[in-house]
Design brief:
105 residues, mainly beta, three-stranded antiparallel beta sheet, 1 helix, elongated
Amino acid sequence: MESGSEGVEATVGGEARAARWSGRYVEVGPVEAGSEVAVSYEQPQYMVKEQLGDGIFTLTMKGSTVVAVDPPGRHCPIFQRAHLREDEVRWRRVQRFVPDRPVAW
């Protein structure tokens, strides 16, 4: 892998590509139309204690998403998101619009 930003890796067309964070985005350089781009980065879990109303709760976070709350609640448990705690990615195919010519803003 070529050097890039720490914690982010990318491939373009199956070949390793230098990748770097640019704000909230990842830059991988020029990509030809129809190329497959794969980007991976770590998103560790951590816990925080917060006062919500009259109670103190332990929130399990993954990135900026609450994936569990302890205590979960007696009558209506909230944030029971075990599937988000897994390291396995749920892949889905998406189609993006790419104009055939530059857009003049």
